[in-house]
TrEMBL record:
UniProt xrefs under SUPFAM superfamilies: alpha/beta-Hydrolases (SSF53474)
Domain AB hydrolase-1, chain residue ranges per copy: 66-307
Gene3D superfamilies attached to this UniProt entry: alpha/beta hydrolase (3.40.50.1820)
The protein, known as: Hydrolase
Family statement: Belongs to the AB hydrolase superfamily. AB hydrolase 4 family.
């Protein structure tokens, strides 16, 4: 009997009454997270093209525990509140973990003019294969946030039945990049665009200084003049990574078209009020498959999902993600 596609699940998560608004969830999650940093071991991981990226390892004493591979969001890093929250949860559970920084996201410029993008699965594949080589007897699970979630889902779709992961979780992934670029360039969401664009501009300006002969006809003045993520993608992200333009990049890098090919248990979490995502991001039933658990919450913003009291705020992702992993590994 053919397995049935799971319907979109309306999650029971309810945002804190004092953080009902999507923007409050999105912004204050960062400031409400525990400030004690989890200690990790940094490793520079060499790539075949001569570049490198940074891995941060969290050790554990439980030899049977799953190893959690983390992928951060756009302009994220080891200090991102959601990464620190998940590392802290892994530490509490005595689970080993590793954060893969995308190229140039560890606070230092990477060695090549190129950077990373939302569909860049090649580096993730190399890291996952290396983790599997080093730990052949451990179940591997991966958690991707926002851009990292899109990369993870695209990777899982590409791998299909050859996927070395036992399970995957994508939090607020921009499944349709064109729709997300349009959404973040409208209304109050422009505040987030300004923040992210500022970080992208700074890293690109550093690259222009780093390379005497930059492979793109870009000047510092042009970079400073970018007013939207789509403009940045049109003039830097797309051409530096071999795409014709921003729309070509969005079409080929969006993970929505890859969902139906996923063959491992996969949890996708979205909030209806996510200021980064429009309704166009929500997949239709024929874009899913029986391996995918798609949970849509009534609130939570973008990688927020805060509940509890003012004095004791809690982060739902810290419970939901490990719960899903345990459920899949104990079946």
């Amino acid at each position: 009997m053919q397995a049935q596609i799971r319907p979109v699940s309306q999650s029971l998560f309810q945002p804190a009454w004092w953080l009902k608004h999507a923007h409050l969830q999105t912004i204050f999650a960062k400031y409400l997270s525990p400030k004690q940093q989890v200690s990790t071991q940094a490793e520079m991981f060499s790539l075949p093209d001569g570049d490198e990226l940074q891995l941060n390892w969290l050790a554990a004493t439980d030899d049977q525990a799953p190893l959690v591979i983390l992928l951060h969001g756009l302009a994220g890093d080891i200090n991102s509140h959601y990464i620190q929250a998940m590392l802290a949860q892994c530490q509490t559970l005595n689970w080993p973990a590793v954060l893969m920084h995308f190229r140039g996201c560890n606070g230092k410029p990477n060695k090549l003019p190129r950077a990373y993008h939302s569909g860049d699965t090649a580096d993730a594949a190399l890291v996952i294969n290396e983790v599997q080589r080093r730990y052949p007897n451990r179940p591997l699970v991966a958690v991707g946030y926002s851009l990292g979630g899109n990369v993870l889902l695209k990777y899982c779709g590409e791998q299909a039945e050859k996927n070395p992961l036992a399970a995957a979780i994508a939090v607020c992934p921009p499944l349709s990049l064109a729709a997300c670029a349009k959404r973040i360039n409208s209304g109050a969401s422009k505040l987030y665009q300004r923040y992210l664009l500022g970080r992208l501009k700074r890293s690109t300006l550093a690259k222009l200084q780093q390379f005497n002969e930059f492979p793109l006809p870009l000047t510092p003045q042009q970079v400073q003049g970018f007013s939207s993520i789509e403009q940045f993608d049109e003039h830097y992200t797309a051409p530096i990574h071999g795409f014709l333009n921003a729309q070509d990049y969005y079409s080929k890098a969006s993970s929505k078209a890859f969902l139906r090919h996923i063959c491992i248990p996969t949890l996708i979490i979205h909030a209806k009020d996510d200021p980064f995502l429009s309704d166009d991001v929500i997949p239709k039933p024929d874009e899913l498959n029986p391996h995918i658990h798609y949970e849509l919450t009534s609130g939570g913003g973008h990688v927020g999902f805060v509940y509890g009291s003012v004095l004791k705020p809690k982060f739902w992702l810290n419970q939901r993600i490990p719960q899903f992993i345990i459920e899949q590994l104990t079946k």
